[in-house]
Design goal:
Layout (H helix, E strand, L loop, with lengths): L5 E5 L9 H11 L6 E5 L5 H7 L4 E4 L16 H7 L3 E4 L2 H6 L4 H13 L3 E6 L3 H5 L3 H12 L10 E5 L13 H19 L7 E5 L4 H9 L5 E4 L6 H16 L1
Parallel strand pairs: 1-2, 1-8, 2-3, 3-4, 4-5, 5-6, 6-7, 7-8
The chain binds 1,3-dihydroxyacetonephosphate.
Length: 252
């Protein structure tokens, strides 16, 4: 797994064809940052179009089914995403866990399906505000990592984990740099307990209200290997501000 900072824009359920021009701007600008790995996860309807139009950035899906094919109306398999041009997929986003009642076991099944389908995978974890207030954030997140990450030979080589505290998503509230660093160390320890030394190579991204003006300090925090960006990835200007902040980390 590369150790370049990894900045991934998650468009969520946003993006019609008109957004292709924004993606093109992101792609062109990203070519100037060879030391940052940049990717977008558009809605599935745009994966193929972005794949055809992009030259410097990665393209991913926002979810996949655990199975390769079958009678699952409305679902998409990892193979289908790959066929459309994706090279990775996000699984276990808190919006899927909350709205679609996805459990850790389901997320792990999807992550393993993604690897079997030839994709890399970003597994999302993160506590709710009530869980943090109850002092259980680290325990909850460690449990999510244990239950959600893929197993099997070499699984860790195509895995990233995104820590996204639920209360920081789309709210403008960002976790403090100390809390982010502490949680990323907690996740790192869990990954090493699962994969052995190889767990130290898994990138851990932070997500939750990352913006150009807070990205530099978040990227500089211990064990932060990149960012999963929602709202700020919908405009090339704000997204590239985050990519630029990540490039400063490399320059240090
Ligand atoms: P925001 O950056 O809009 O808070 O979203 C974060 C997120 O959920 C990315 O997956």
């Amino acid at each position: 797994m590369s150790d370049l900072p990894y900045i991934v824009g998650n468009w969520k359920m946003n993006g019609l064809r008109g957004m292709l021009s924004e993606a093109r701007s992101i792609d062109r600008a990203s070519a100037r940052y060879p030391k940052v790995q940049v990717a977008l996860t558009p809605p599935a309807t745009l994966i193929h179009r972005l794949h055809e139009a992009m030259q410097s950035i990665g393209i991913g899906g926002q979810d996949c089914h655990a199975e390769e094919s079958g009678a699952y109306t409305g679902d998409l398999s990892a193979q289908m995403l790959k066929d459309a041009g994706a090279d990775f997929v996000i699984v276990g986003h808190s919006e899927r866990r909350a709205v679609h009642n996805e459990t850790d076991a389901m997320v792990r099944g999807k992550a393993e399906g993604a690897l079997a389908g030839g994709l890399s995978v970003i597994v999302c974890v993160g506590e709710t505000e009530a869980e943090r207030d109850a002092g259980k954030a680290e325990e909850i997140v460690a449990g999510q990592v244990e239950g959600s990450v893929p197993r099997g030979k070499g699984a860790e080589l195509r895995l990233s984990v995104a820590y996204e505290p639920v209360w920081a998503i789309g709210t403008g509230r960002v976790a403090s740099v100390d809390d982010v660093a502490a949680m990323h160390r907690n996740i790192r320890a869990k990954l090493v307990s699962i994969y052995g030394e190889a767990g130290s190579g898994v990138r851990i991204l932070y997500g939750g209200s990352v913006k150009p003006d807070n990205a530099a300090e978040l990227m500089a925090a211990d064990e932060v290997g990149g960012a999963l960006v929602g709202g700020a990835s919908l405009s090339a200007e704000s997204f590239m501000g985050i990519v630029d902040a990540a490039s400063q980390k490399v320059a240090e």
